[in-house]
Every structure is written in C-alpha cells, then in structure tokens.
Amino acid sequence: MKFIQKEMGCEFFVLDTEIMIVNNNLFKYQIFPKSEYLSSFIKYLNSDKKIEVKNLNRYIEVPSDILNKIIDKFLKLKLIRLVEVDEIVQGAEFIEQSLDPRFGTQLLWMNQFTNDAPKLLSNIKNLEVCIIGAGALGSSLALKLSAMGIKNISIWDGDKVELDNLTRQYLYTDKASQNNEYKVDELKKIIKNFYPESNIRVHRKFINSYKSFYEIEKNTNLIIQTADFPKGKIDYWCNEYSIKNKIPVIFTHHKSVGPFYIPGKTACLACFENYINTQTNGYFKKYKEIVKNKPNQKNGSFITGQLMNEVIILNLFTRFFIKKDYDFSNSIFIINESDLSIDLLNFDLKHECQCRQGGI
After folding, report:
1. 224 and 320, same domain (yes or no)
2. What DSSP string describes 313-354?
3. Structure confidence by residue, pLDDT tens digits, 284-308
C-alpha cells in the first residue's frame, strides 16, 4: 500500500484498485459513486490545466488504469505528495488533540452523524439526566454518561454501600462499606475525580411516593429508572410523571430494558402492560397486584446481566441524543443471563393512552 497526502489536509490512501480520500478536518470516509461527474473530472485531469481539488474529500473507486492516471496527474501538479505511514498517524493525532484534548476521538466519531460535531458535543454536555437508583446499573451508567461528557446528572438513592453489593456494584469499595457511606456520596466522589467539570447532584433518599418525583430537576432531558423499590409502584409513578411533564424515560430492571418512552413518539409503560394483560387474558394484572403486596426482597443477580443492560441503554441513548434517530419500536429487551441471549418483545398499540398526546 502506498500513501499519498494533499498539502491542504486531505489524505489519499491508494490500494490495488481503488483510492480513498479522507478529509482530515472531519475524518469522513465517503464513497464517490461512478457517475458522469467522475468521468468528466478524470477527463479534466488529463488536460493541461491546473485544477482545484478542494472538494474531492471523498472515497473514489475506479479501475486501476484510470487510477494511475489520476495519481500521476496529482503528483505532476504537486497537489499531493508521497508520505510515510507514521507521518499520517502523527497528523491524525494532531487533529484529534486540536479538536478537543479530552473529547477529540469522540468528536471524530460524531462527525459521521453531523456537520457540526463541536455543537453536538456541547449539547450532550449540557443535557440534564436523572438516574433513579445508584445500584449496579445506575452507578455504572452514571460514570459512562460522564465519560460521554454529560455534566449534569442527578442521582437518587437512600442506600448505603454494603459488602455484598461489591460483586456487581464494582465502583464502590470495601472501605466505603466499612464506613457505612451512602452510595450517592461515593458515586459523586468517583465521578468528580474522573470528570472534574461534572455537576453531580445527589439525593440521599428513596423516591417513595409520586410526589417525590416533583423534586426532580424541572429541566431534566432524560430519566433512567433503575430502582426496584417500592416494587409494583415506582415504575407507575415514574410513568405518570414522565407523561405529564413530557420527559423521556428508560425503564430498566434485572433482566430487562424498556420501554423507552419518548413523549408523542413511543408507547409508555401502561401501554405495554395493557398489551401483556390482553395477551394473558387478565392474568398479568392479577400477578401485578400480588407483586405489589409482597414484601421487598433482593433478587439473585450476576455481573453479566447488568453489563448487557448497559449496552442496550447506552445504545438507546446514542440513537436518540446523538444520531437523532427517532424511529423506535415499542419494545422490551428481555435478557437471559444463563446464555447471554436477548429477546425483543414488540407490542402493539390498540388502546387510547394519554402518552400519545403531544410530544417533546
């Protein structure tokens, strides 16, 4: 493989039968399809005129004989030059650092979704995310969202670190359990140390009533509901609150993720439960009442389950806030910890619900 570089910031990667041109300012790799424009351009290259190639930041696939003519012409016109691989790598590192010393690689990745990655990153940084529950899933998600650049995260949990938490809640320490520390306090210290610009607001209490939701920051852009207790109640309070205040919410629990309620776009938790109740001839409603009245107790769990939850949730977050992909189905992800498989349960909307009124 030969490497050729244009003086003004474009790189040309020459393969056996094709050429790849990369715009270093955006790091975009694009296919330039065979067309009349390409034929005219090649013909123009073979003329004696000096040409401008500033707009040719595309991937070009052409026959090798035509390719050789293009390369020869570029070299004669001194529009490109031969360079070593190391020089290109160093150039990429320089570009990465010049974009942002911390988020340079993320900006390069974001360029595939937008023409203004710095603005998109700024929007991500200024999101307000509320995480209910600082257990295995909530704590890990808080740190990973901070890694994306999100500064403003509020975390709700009244639990203290216990020794048996540490098999899954790996951010906490044995010392924190010995000192009887609140999870949210420990998590705030961890995130602030990791991302000093972050603005982590912690609440050392459980959400134990519908009214508690009105203590959540009013400008919240996303709620991630991970708490298990009060069982049979907290999800419904969260669902009602998010509908009334038009706030997207991702519901996630042991072995499941969903629904992802987006006001005016996707179905809410009540829609899902209505569907399941219809499919089970009313037995789901009876089961729900039994669960609601059972005393709170812990479920058995293993670290692999929460990691799969995280991947799904971060993918949903990325699709919605970064890729601006709003084409979400009404679905629940069911996670099987025994073989690490995921089943997707899609549900239909056959009843009227207030969740479909308006939108964000």
Report:
1. yes
2. HHHHHIIIIIS------SEEEEEETTTTEEEEEE----S--G
3. 777 777 666 666 666 677 777 788 8
